[in-house]
Amino acid sequence: MSIKPINVGLLGIGTVGGGTFTVLQRNAEEITRRAGRPIRITMVADRNLDLARKITEGTCRVTDDAFAVVSDPEVDIVIELIGGYGVAKELVMKAISNGKHVVTANKALLATHGNEIFEAAQEQGVMVAFEAAIAGGIPIVKAVREGLTANRIEWVAGIINGTTNFILSEMRDKGLDFDVVLKEAQRLGYAEADPTFDIEGVDAAHKITLLASLAFGIPVQFDKAHIEGISKLDAIDIQYAEQLGYRIKLLGISKRTEEGVELRVHPTLIPSKRLIANVEGAMNAVLVHGDAVGPTLYYGKGAGAEPTASAVIADLVDVTRMHTADPENRVPHLAFQPNAMSDLKILPMDEVQTSYYLRLRVQDKTGALADITRLLADEQISIGAVIQKEPGEGEAQADLILLTHQTREKRINAAIVKIEALGVVAGKVTKLRMEELGK
Predict the structure, then answer these.
(1) Same-fold call for 140-301 versus 352-434
(2) Over 50: is that where the pLDDT of 1 sits?
(3) Signed CA dihedral, 49, 52, 56, 59: sign only
């Protein structure tokens, strides 16, 4: 007897949707052997009917009404690839209330409305799988949620936005300014016409919010994340960081501390010898530190049609295998049992502790450095390294770079206000955070 296939409805057949359709067809035999039954897309919704018909070549029903898909009694699993949190949320909630499992790549939706969505899925006894929402084809959700179950996870740090990593790699390689490289990234298709979500760190913040929930068993709290992008980063700081043995990367970071959970996205100096510091171009990498296993690194393509499709289909296979299982025995959405979530608070940025890179324009006067170090000492901040540049020909000012030891953000901010008020310091102090990521 032949086993009944599982029927899938696909919402959106753009880049990732098209890739999912292609890979599912190409590897159908392999996937069936793994899943235990055939997985087939039986219905596709897309505004562009011509495109949908062209890709599917008459193998399934095509409609421009996504709501028809989530309400179709024949559909077992809905793949949501529309994006955003307007109609996508309505469709996901409708699919869940109709008793359908959902596979999505929508990090914005889950980072903002995940708690509500997972709760609804829990009540209906269906699964919401989102491997494709974080770091494209890298199986990071599965690694954290299942592979590292034995560990108390201490911290997660990731290069989880390919656009910004590509821009930073180019700035470093070619010594170019941000604006120039952004235009190039747009021309090559690495950056969107409106790149705000990527370059201002919002996309990375959606992803680290979800990773923090998986790592620490806390509800998703995107509104509490500290978010800084790379648009204000100067090429000169990338060069100085290099000279000091560091690379600058936009990192999503979440750490468990005695006081709560750190949740932040910002440009970060990382020692050049770390593997993650050498992740270039549009590649992604996530470093997860567990108490038993130590640091583990996951590297791969964070975007693109087939890498993301790889994650979408892995979720389809998971859901297919667990489809008939008692909901109580499935892997929980956020790794921890829903009734055992923690209420660890997210720390405000002021309370975060890390080391800092400071760059100042200082007048070439005796005692200038002594004044600055005194103000840092007043805030109990000690200095790890100093680079004093000679003033250029005919200039009265020079760059001074200081690396501090660990301190609290509010202390460094208080010190900077005092330093900027000194007569010998011109303009604003540039402040960047540093992470060792070693243990």
Answers:
(1) no
(2) no
(3) negative
* Tens-place pLDDT, residues 69-98: 999 999 999 999 999 999 999 999 999 999
**Predicted local confidence at residue 163, as pLDDT:** 96
pLDDT at 432 over 50: yes
Cβ atoms 242, 236 nearer than 8 A: no
Which residue reads 């720390």 in tokens?
Answer: 347
pLDDT in tens, 202-230: 999 999 999 999 999 999 999 999 999 99
Pairing of strands 283-290, 77-80: unpaired
* 352-434: CATH, from 3.40.50.1380, 3.40.50.300, 3.40.1190.20, 3.30.70.260: 3.30.70.260
Q: Which residues have C-beta within 8 Å of that of residue 18, sequence separation ≥ 6?
A: 55, 305
Q: Give me the phi and psi of 424, to 5 degrees please.
A: -80, -10
Residue 250: which residues within 8 A CB-CB, separation 6 or more? 159, 161, 164, 165, 168, 201, 204, 229, 230, 265, 266, 267, 268
Whether residue 235 has pLDDT greater than 70:
yes
How far from each other are the two terminal CA atoms of the chain, in whole angstroms? 54
- Element holding 212 (H helix, E strand): helix 202-216
- Size of the chain in residues: 439
Q: What is the CATH code of the structural domain delimited by 140-301? A: 3.30.360.10
Other C-beta atoms lying within 10 Å of the C-beta of residue 179: 9
Closest CA to 268 of 176, 356, 387, 349: 356
Sequential DSSP letters for 348-399? PGGG-EEEEEEEEEEES-TTHHHHHHHHHHHTT--EEEEEEPPPPTT-SEEE
Question: In the chain, what percentage of residues exceed pLDDT 70?
Answer: 100
Q: Tell me the C-alpha distance between 141 and 139, whole Å.
A: 6
Residues near 331 by beta carbon (within 8 Å), at least 6 away in sequence: 145, 146, 322
242 close to 401: Cβ distance less than 8 angstroms:
no
Pick the CATH number of 6-134+305-339 from 3.40.50.720, 3.40.50.300, 3.40.50.620, 3.40.50.11540: 3.40.50.720
Which among 89, 107, 207, 255 is annotated as catalytic? 207
Alpha-carbon distance 328 to 338, whole Å? 10
Structural domain spans, the chain: 6-134+305-339, 140-301, 352-434
Bridge partner residues of 44 (DSSP): 10, 62
Task: Examine the residue annotation and report whether 207 is marked as an active-site residue of this protein.
Answer: yes
